[in-house]
Design brief:
The protein has one domain: Alpha/beta knot (3-Layer(aba) Sandwich), CATH 3.40.1280.10. The chain is 44% helix and 22% strand. It contains 5 helices and 5 strands, in the order E-H-E-H-E-H-E-H-E-H. Strands 2-1-4-3-5 form a 5-stranded parallel beta sheet. Helix 1 runs parallel beside helix 5 and helix 3 crosses helix 5. The mean pLDDT is 90.
């Protein structure tokens, strides 16, 4: 099973890129995780509805012919504790076998068409975070989840 993290937008600033790279490196021995940027720089509108629709086209293009479980990182999604998220990862690996694709939307979230395609929505918090910061937070939680599954001392509870 592969885990892919897709993020709509631009590359992270250098300090956040270092955090992302560090967690991807730490995850390497435990899971096949990759990060993909879906660049939206060619979208020339300032209208959030138009932007979400055009970003949806870019996302659907990437999803075409994919047999994967699609999880949107969305403020209205299901919340997990770190241990519950680890169990979710374990159960998915043991019983589903499909690749997991976690998608971080752009600044305005997701178009309804992407919500309809998703198998699940996951919320990191009731707070709203910049989508570039969400990348670092989510990678840390993914690493924490795999650390729990592998009985590593990273998670102290």
């Amino acid at each position: 099973m592969k885990i892919e993290i897709w993020s709509v937008g631009n590359a992270s600033p250098g300090h956040l890129q270092k955090v992302e790279d560090e967690y991807l490196k730490r995850l390497k021995p435990m899971a096949h995780v990759s990060f993909h940027l879906i660049r939206n720089h060619k979208i020339r509108s300032n209208d959030p509805i138009v932007i979400k629709k055009e970003e949806a086209v870019l996302i659907r293009k990437q999803l075409k012919n994919r047999n994967a479980r699609i999880v949107l990182l969305d403020e209205y999604g299901q919340e997990f504790t770190s241990k519950a998220f680890a169990r979710f990862l374990r159960d998915h690996m043991n019983h589903m076998g499909q690749d997991l694709v976690f998608i971080i939307g752009g600044a305005f979230g997701f178009d309804d068409s992407i919500h309809e395609m998703a198998n699940m929505k996951l919320s990191l918090s009731k707070f709203t975070f910049p989508h570039q910061l969400v990348r670092s937070i989510f990678l840390e939680q993914l690493y924490r989840g795999f650390s729990i599954l592998n009985s590593l001392p990273y998670h102290h509870q």
